[in-house]
Amino acid sequence: LNKILYHDEL
Amino acid sequence: MNVFRLAGDMTHLLSILLLLLKIYATKSCSGVSRKTQELYAIVFIFRYLDLFTDFISVYNTFMKVVFIASSLAIVWCMRFHPVVRRSYDRELDTFRYFFLVGASFALALIWHEKFSVQEVFWAFSIYLEAVAILPQLVLLQRSGNVDNLTGQYVFFLGAYRAFYILNWIYRYLTEPRFTRWIAGTSGVVQTALYADFFYYYFISWKNNSKLKLPA
């Protein structure tokens, strides 16, 4: 989940 | 999502739409660097490797597809469209961008969030995007007069990352333990590379004169 947290931007 | 990031994404989308409009309306790509467009296609492909594995939101997925598809479509037009390809400034667009790709990848091997294929390629795409505009800026200096749509394209392309910097500051101030050192550092370098363009763009806007970059 943390990956999604820090790649939530384009 | 905050207003700065939304403004950034919309500005980025606008820049791409302006370039598509220029190529479609004038059936010409004069003044546009194909090398910068190819670098941007590489940036989007390697940044969005998680397109099919991580779903964040419809908006996120939609924009990723738009960015990848539009950059590939522009490169295709400039290489293979029978009319558009003839107006490509082949002899002016000579920036040896292999070094930009190599240096970005080398840096990504050293500085990344995690040492994994996806993260190294993500960092690579961040560093490459910072320097991807260089062939375009060199081409503008060499080609003298810049048509309005191309000038607006470069302007909004530079502005979008400036909005992202405001977004990172805002998130740093409002979200605990929020950090984006790789994207933030690279984004500042990227925006700084537009400084002289922004200056001459502002002068041309103030004097209502044609945009001219000194050779």
From TrEMBL, chain B:
<keyword id="KW-0813">Transport</keyword>
<keyword id="KW-1133">Transmembrane helix</keyword>
<keyword id="KW-0472">Membrane</keyword>
<feature type="transmembrane region" description="Helical">
    <location>
        <begin position="56"/>
        <end position="76"/>
    </location>
</feature>
<feature type="transmembrane region" description="Helical">
    <location>
        <begin position="182"/>
        <end position="202"/>
    </location>
</feature>
<protein>
    <recommendedName>
        <fullName>ER lumen protein-retaining receptor</fullName>
    </recommendedName>
</protein>
<keyword id="KW-0675">Receptor</keyword>
<feature type="signal peptide">
    <location>
        <begin position="1"/>
        <end position="25"/>
    </location>
</feature>
<dbReference type="GO" id="GO:0016192">
    <property type="term" value="P:vesicle-mediated transport"/>
</dbReference>
<dbReference type="GO" id="GO:0005789">
    <property type="term" value="C:endoplasmic reticulum membrane"/>
</dbReference>
<keyword id="KW-0653">Protein transport</keyword>
<keyword id="KW-0812">Transmembrane</keyword>
<keyword id="KW-0732">Signal</keyword>
<dbReference type="GO" id="GO:0005801">
    <property type="term" value="C:cis-Golgi network"/>
</dbReference>
<dbReference type="Pfam" id="PF00810">
    <property type="entry name" value="ER_lumen_recept"/>
</dbReference>
<feature type="transmembrane region" description="Helical">
    <location>
        <begin position="97"/>
        <end position="114"/>
    </location>
</feature>
<dbReference type="InterPro" id="IPR000133">
    <property type="entry name" value="ER_ret_rcpt"/>
</dbReference>
<dbReference type="GO" id="GO:0006621">
    <property type="term" value="P:protein retention in ER lumen"/>
</dbReference>
<keyword id="KW-0256">Endoplasmic reticulum</keyword>
<feature type="transmembrane region" description="Helical">
    <location>
        <begin position="120"/>
        <end position="140"/>
    </location>
</feature>
<dbReference type="GO" id="GO:0015031">
    <property type="term" value="P:protein transport"/>
</dbReference>
<feature type="transmembrane region" description="Helical">
    <location>
        <begin position="152"/>
        <end position="170"/>
    </location>
</feature>
<comment type="similarity">
    <text>Belongs to the ERD2 family.</text>
</comment>
<keyword id="KW-0931">ER-Golgi transport</keyword>
<dbReference type="GO" id="GO:0046923">
    <property type="term" value="F:ER retention sequence binding"/>
</dbReference>
